[in-house]
Amino acid sequence: MKSRAAVAWEAGKPLEVTEIDVEGPKAGEVLVRNVATGVCHTDAFTLSGADPEGNFPSVLGHEGGAIVEEVGKGVTSVAPGDHVIPLYTADCGECKLCKSGKTNLCSSVRETQGKGVMPDGTSRFSTNGKSLHHYMGCSTFSEYSVVAGVSLAKVSKDAPLDKVCLLGCGVTTGIGAVRNTAGVEPGSNVAVFGLGAIGLAAIQGAVMAQAGRIIAIDINPSKFELAKQMGATECVNPKDYDQPIQEVIVDMTDGGVDYSFECIGNVHVMRSALECCHKGWGKSVVIGVAGAGEEISTRPFQLVTGREWTGSAFGGVKGRNLNGFVNSYMCGHIDLDSFVTHNMKLEQINEAFDLLHEGKSIRTVIHF
Ligand code: NAD
Ligand code: AHE
Ligand code: ZN
């Protein structure tokens, strides 16, 4: 079938909105119609060429809200007409990682996903006979996409797909990192570095966890208003200080915060986020994605003296639990609407990337 899609032909170049060919689903696969998709910083990261798993040409996008069109042989978890959120962290329930009960990372389709192909090693996308890669198992920048059956969360039909698409990545990641990865307790002090969708969602998660002080940090002060609306108790711009930001936070908090979250993808800030944690128990969670070849460093003494450094993918959330987040949105416990700063058509998708780079958007939702 034909589908409108935004194609990433090569790193660092704008996407081309064009018509592509989409093959029907093979066994274990599902054809979905994307109704809406968010544009996440990770899409921009991969398009930049910094992602070691970046494949070109490809159809990017991984924050979608979709409707099932057709299921391939053997798929019983969803049926045509079901509303779904594609998952870049699949949930097969049967692999070693799923069975461990210790992680949300599923290995069932991860290897082929990283190569930009379906589990059988081939692509369902092409244009003029040239094959296009899939992306993160989702490729939500195409009206029609084919995903593995294990990479879909069935969600309530009452939920607006142009809002709950943000639960396909950004908002779930931030809330989940606070709740699942860090386990923030009531009264604890939290620092959030980077106030895009991920950082703002981490603030929302911290409020839900009844954190005490929630310190929001960004070099773009235009982000502070929404951070306060989400529940930040203080906003700090590192550019206002001569000292390293970790020293500023340590001074503000009588020795450091209990939990910190890096929501930028900057390895130097990851170090600051660790080092602003309290001696003996402070825990820092890396959420931001850093480019190929980049590494983190700190004095091992930071760890010897009891700080913990960990990371979080999709907020540690299992895909099969995603409808719980959808229900929380529907009953007003999770705010998604405030994240949607812009709504656009697919044809405008490059503007959405520009706004993200300029720090002028939190999430642009693309409507097909
Ligand atoms: P975004 O671009 O909307 O937000 C990033 C924010 O960081 C911006 O407000 C920017 O001003 C701020 N910033 C930049 N440099 C800074 C610095 N030196 N100090 C303080 N603030 C700084 O991005 P986003 O969509 O919110 O994504 C954030 C990061 O999280 C990206 O790296 C993205 O790839 C990653 N991510 C990870 C996961 C995961 O599961 N681990 C999921 C989604 C996104
Ligand atoms: N492909 C990159 C890593 C990218 C990465 O870390 N992705 C995050 C999700 S970002 C969503 O916006 C993640 O969950 N990773 C776990 C996984 O299994 O991909 C690289 O460095 O190779
Ligand atoms: Zn994302």
Automatic annotation (TrEMBL):
Alcohol dehydrogenase-like C-terminal domain boundaries: 197-316
Name of protein: S-(Hydroxymethyl)glutathione dehydrogenase/class III alcohol dehydrogenase
Cofactor or coenzyme needed: Zn(2+)
Domain Alcohol dehydrogenase-like N-terminal: residue ranges: 27-154
Any single Pfam family the record assigns to this protein: ADH_zinc_N
Keyword annotations: Metal-binding, NAD, Zinc
Highest rank taxon of the organism: Bacteria
